[in-house]
Amino acid sequence: MRPQERDALLLYALADLSYEEIAFALDIPVGTVRTWLHRARLTARRVLASETEAFPRATTGADLHG
User: Fold this and answer.
1) Residue 24 and residue 15: Cα distance in Å, rounded?
2) Residue 66 pLDDT greater than 60, yes or no
3) Which domains does the chain have, with CATH numbers?
4) Half-sphere exposure (Cβ direction) of 60: Cα atoms closer than 13 Å
């Protein structure tokens, strides 16, 4: 994920800023915020999907004892 996309995602998800507030904070148009967040979400989904495939759900004791 590109640094500017990560920054926009963190401001949205962790700082709970609106698109307009992110645009103001980063001195970019709101449309650019939308684009960066879209790209960041796609990247995050791809990474999480590949991690899920690499590390399947662990079997718990409850699963073993049925």
Assistant:
1) 14
2) no
3) 3-56 (1.10.10.10)
4) 4
